[in-house]
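> example.struct
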């Protein structure tokens, strides 16, 4: 946001972002990393490894089984010893705790979000 208000994007720009429902299959600590752990997320057509910046608040094993919202076309990024292939969406909660976006009704892994 700039001083004069929000910076708007076009619908065409927004439509480039690919968001899908994911199901966390597994999660584990990354050696040497205190704030981040690795999760494997099922997004329907494939399973992706992503870095999750929540290790200060959530144990990896407590993250398994969650339904999450994932950006699937973000450029891969090396974090520690792994390559993160997507980003899980989260809001800023109290004291910086990530509050991961999810859904209230059932949708299969890989379901696109519009």
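> example.seq
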């Amino acid at each position: 946001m700039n001083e004069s208000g929000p910076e708007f994007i076009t619908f065409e720009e927004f439509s480039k972002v690919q968001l899908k429902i994911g199901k966390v299959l597994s999660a584990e600590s990354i050696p040497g990393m205190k704030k981040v752990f690795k999760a494997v997320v099922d997004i329907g057509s494939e399973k992706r490894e992503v870095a999750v910046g929540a290790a200060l608040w959530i144990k990896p094993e407590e993250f398994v089984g969650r339904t999450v919202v994932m950006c699937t076309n973000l450029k891969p990024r090396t974090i520690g010893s792994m390559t993160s292939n997507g980003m899980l969406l989260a809001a800023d909660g109290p004291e910086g705790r990530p509050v991961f976006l999810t859904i209230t009704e059932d949708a299969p892994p890989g379901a696109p979000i519009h």
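> remarks
The chain has one domain: 18-106.
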